[in-house]
């Protein structure tokens, strides 16, 4: 009887440890936002950051897609890590990622075909995104499922934070709008032009406050995203000297 009770207690401890959320788990979520950011520190996934950030809404959709794919591909890879032969591990990882990307692509195509066309090939290229393959190799293949899942979410959030910051500046200064084409437009915050939360061409409402601004076409180009990311890297390393020689 005593042995049975002891085994039940031990199994209960194992269950609690399986999904525990301590200091290490919190760091898996927070470090990629700053000290271990996949774009500004690891210098991964820069191509999509340059290409899809002309508007905030597509940047947000891309962020959600990458978080979903990265978190669950890390989870499934970790669950299968002891059963995957090393000789075919990359192929198995690609199959997992491709399956998840296909799910995202079909959902996006059904839910918002306009955004799907805006993101175009970059949704499919998530399959070969350096961040995803890098995390699967560096973390998913070496750690348990729960930490791997959190690592995927954390790196997805770190990637998305840069996309949203860059998209904010590029859309506002390059097009003179914010959240163009997003569902937020249904809030009708600016009266006659509900497709935008801020629209410099508006004649009334919030948008009219910015009617003096002439959009800068340079910000629409990918080179603007490069300069913005470089500025973020500079600010980050100025604030945190230990990152100067990291990448």
The class by helix and strand makeup works out as mainly alpha
Shape: globular
Name the strands of the widest sheet in spatial order. 1-2
Q: Unreliable stretches, pLDDT < 50, 5 or more residues?
A: 1-10, 186-194
Tell me the major beta sheet. Answer: 2 strands, antiparallel
Q: Give the overall pLDDT as a whole number.
A: 82
Termini Cα gap: 58 Å
Total count of helical runs of at least 4 residues: 10
Helix proportion range:
55-70%
Report on the structure:
The structure is a single chain. The chain has helices at residues 2-18, 23-30, 46-51, 56-80, 89-111, 113-119, 121-124, 130-140, 145-175, 222-239; strands at 177-178, 198-199. With 247 residues, it is an all-alpha fold. The chain has a domain at 43-166. Helices cover 61% and strands 2% of the residues. Mean pLDDT is 82; it is low at 1-10 and 186-194.
């Amino acid at each position: 009887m005593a042995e049975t009770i002891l085994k039940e207690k031990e199994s209960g401890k194992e269950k609690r440890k399986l999904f525990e959320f301590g200091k290490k788990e919190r760091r898996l979520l927070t470090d990629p936002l700053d000290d271990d950011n996949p774009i500004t520190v690891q210098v991964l996934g820069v191509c999509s950051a340059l290409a899809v950030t002309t508007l905030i809404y597509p940047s947000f959709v891309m962020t959600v897609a990458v978080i979903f794919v990265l978190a669950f591909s890390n989870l499934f890879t970790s669950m299968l890590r002891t059963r995957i032969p090393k000789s075919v591990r990359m192929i198995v990882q690609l199959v997992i990622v491709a399956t998840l990307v296909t799910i995202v692509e079909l959902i996006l195509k059904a839910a918002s075909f306009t955004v799907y066309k805006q993101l175009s090939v970059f949704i499919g290229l998530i399959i070969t995104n350096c961040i995803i393959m890098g995390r699967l190799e560096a973390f998913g293949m070496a750690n348990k499922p729960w930490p791997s899942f959190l690592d995927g979410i954390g790196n997805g959030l770190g990637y998305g934070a840069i996309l949203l910051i860059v998209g904010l500046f590029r859309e506002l200064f390059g097009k003179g709008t914010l959240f163009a084409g997003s569902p937020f437009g249904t809030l009708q915050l600016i009266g006659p032009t509900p497709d935008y939360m801020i629209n410099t061409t508006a004649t009334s409402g919030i948008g009219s406050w910015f009617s003096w601004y002439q959009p800068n076409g340079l910000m629409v180009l990918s080179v603007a995203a490069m300069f913005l990311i470089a500025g973020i890297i500079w600010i980050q390393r100025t604030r945190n000297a230990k990152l100067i020689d990291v990448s």
